[in-house]
Amino acid sequence: xxxxxxxxxxxxxxxxxxxxLTVIRFYLGVKTPxxxxxxxAMDDFLYIQYATHILGGKWLGDFSALVLLKTxxxxxxxxxxxxxxxxxPVSLAAGYMLAAALFSLAMxxxxxxxxxxxxxxxxxxYSPGMFHEENVQKVYRGGYIVIFTLLVLGAVVGQFAARGAxxxxxxxxxxxxxxxxxxxxxxxxEDSVWILPFVCGGTAFTMIGLWNNKDTRKVxxxxxxxxxxxxxxxxxxxxxxxxxxxxxxxxxxxxEGTYFKEVVADLLQVDDGKGFExxxxxxxxxxxxxxxEHSKTLEELLPYVEQSWKNWCGESEAPxxxxxxxxxxxxxLSGAYGQGGAYVDSxxxxxxxxxxxxxxxxxxxxxxxxxxxxxxxxxxxxxxxxGYFRERFPRxxxxxxxxxxxATTSQEARGLSENLALMSNVTMTHFRWGxxxxxxxxxxxxxxxxxxxxxxxxxxxxxxxFWVGLAGCTGLLLATAAKLAQRKTVGRQGDILLVxxxxxxxxxLLMAAVLWFCxxxxxxKVYDYLCAAIPLMExxxxxGCYYAVCGARHLWKKRRMFPILQQRKI
Length: 570
Prior knowledge:
About 70% of the residues lie in helices and about 0% in strands. The chain is globular, with a radius of gyration of 26 Å. The longest helix has about 45 residues, at about 440-485. The two termini are about 40 Å apart. It is mainly alpha-helical. α1 packs across α4 (about 90-110), α2 (about 45-55) packs across α17 and α7 (about 140-160) packs antiparallel against α8.
């Protein structure tokens, strides 16, 4: 009897430990103090306004420079949470635990190691990325981006791992998860395109696997694999139609699918003959004035551009994409937004056509030798690209590997009291009023202290896991390459390597895009923008560490081949 009890305890002990860690993590997530910024009119508070308009049946509100500024995904989530009576901290905590569990389950189906899946789940569960102020304390989109990144990746990996199985329910569930998660993820932010190579690649390999297996070569299986991408396409068309119905512009935001994007792209290419070496300045005042000399419509708008530019930057040059914000403000000051989206787009169309005519005639010159990652971001020469990335890319790796800029805080709310009250109502959270007695928030300080201790543990061990993980990934790559060279089948090992390379490539792609865009921002903000890369690197490190341990165990079992180890009894 005693032996039977011991076996049962050993069997259920891991599950009990994981359950306990999950409950603790949920408690920490729910109790994490929220940092309301009602003065962030273009960021945190903007989504509250969007959500309020959605709840009132007005979509994103009356047409203005704020309406097509950002995607509506986060606001829709806030609105749904409000209807369901779910607070912002609860939605983040529960959503993240579910995402980590489903992603770990997908990786289990791939690796087929219960110990690895449990370790990965716990590792992700207490990740500093979801103890970071920007992601979980501000009412913004960082936390939801991390959650839906894991859900999308889990859906793709799950489909890929199940491609040779005959489990209909499992395949259908992974497909439904992808149909749900991919469209939401894609419209949480304006630059979510970085995940599509992984999704498309994973879908392609899944379909190849289905085609090569006679037992799974069925139409519905191919449909299930393609369904998430089809769902994204349908949601995209529907989203644009809604915007067109309300605002007269068939676009998601004004940075794509509109003539505003074309005008920004034109201005970024204007060669004013003076040049500028500061990578943080995308468009100078002189470039705008040079363009206005060849566009009558822009010349008429120029006084409003100057006024808006001063509101944003004073007498200085506009850093980064602030020039884009200034142009939105200029068009609003001119009164164009009061005449609807079609009129605003027609104004930008005139400017674009006039500038294009000047470019084609040679009256206006473009910068030569520059290439652009996006039509609405600064172009770089080959020399600028090499120098910039040689300096900042290693620092970005350090940011992610050691969570250098990660922090949980307890801060007083900012902004007008009525705006803070609205934010508190929509998110169903309490917050710290400015100038209040800090003793009242002693409980918050305890939670913050605990979370920062967890963060410091990850920070201290981050580099060790990085190097061990890198060694394990390298070993997996070499072992798979050796099998291929010997014309042996790689099986599951090859599948794991394929997914691992996809995760690493996605992480590098996101890092490159963020660094390009953030060339005018400090490293703290770079870390904020890299929130989705954190679970990618963590998963790659976990897989690498798993194979490093497996390799070490294999060598230990083969120690008879090493007389030196045998003599020393190691």
